[in-house]
Amino acid sequence: MKYLIYLLICATLFAGEVQITANKFTANEAKGISIFTGKVYVIRGKDDLKADKVVIKFDKNKQPTLYTATGNVQAKLSIKNKRYFAKGDTLIYDPLTLKYTIEKNAFLQELNTDKKVYGNKIWVDQARGYYEVDGKKDTPVKFIFKLEDKKK
């Protein structure tokens, strides 16, 4: 059975409402961890994320300090007033530093310009608009973008 979980606590922790839908929810207040498993779908403002599992860590003041999504991760994100589609085996978001890390089979696409980057690991610093991509020994980084035809 699918549980629809509205985290009323999270609504006060974040700027706006967070909705999380999952097949299972587990919380360990002593460790400050909430775990969502099975067809996890997270909505926060214009951003959304789908994954097999999402773990949210909280500090002693019940403020989120780290989000880790694993398994078939796909996300639509707003970064520096641009829309992106991201996917990979793991997506980590640090709300304190506004940094994303996409790991293993990492892919990031800027939706407005259709720029695409593939790699083993992609780092995005949301505050600075900084991106870094790392390949593997046998698989280099791939960057795809379109050029405008100036002759038109």
Question: Explain this structure to me?
Answer:
This protein has one helix and eleven strands. It is mainly beta and 152 residues long. The protein has one domain (3-144): Lipopolysaccharide (LPS) transport protein A like domain (lipopolysaccharide transport protein A fold, Sandwich). Strands 1, 2, 3, 4, 5, 6, 7, 8, 9, 10 and 11 form an eleven-stranded antiparallel sheet that branches.
What secondary-structure arrangement, pairings included, does this model have?
Blueprint lengths: L2 E4 L1 H6 L4 E5 L1 E5 L4 E12 L2 E12 L5 E16 L2 E13 L4 E12 L4 E11 L4 E5 L7 E3 L8
Antiparallel strand pairs: 1-2, 2-4, 3-4, 4-5, 5-6, 6-7, 7-8, 8-9, 9-10, 9-11
Radius of gyration: 17 Å
Low-confidence stretches: 1-14
Could you report the average pLDDT, rounded to the nearest whole number? 81
CATH homolog superfamily? Lipopolysaccharide (LPS) transport protein A like domain
The CATH first-level class comes to Mainly Beta
Overall strand count:
11
CATH topology (fold) name:
lipopolysaccharide transport protein A fold
Total number of distinct structural domains: 1
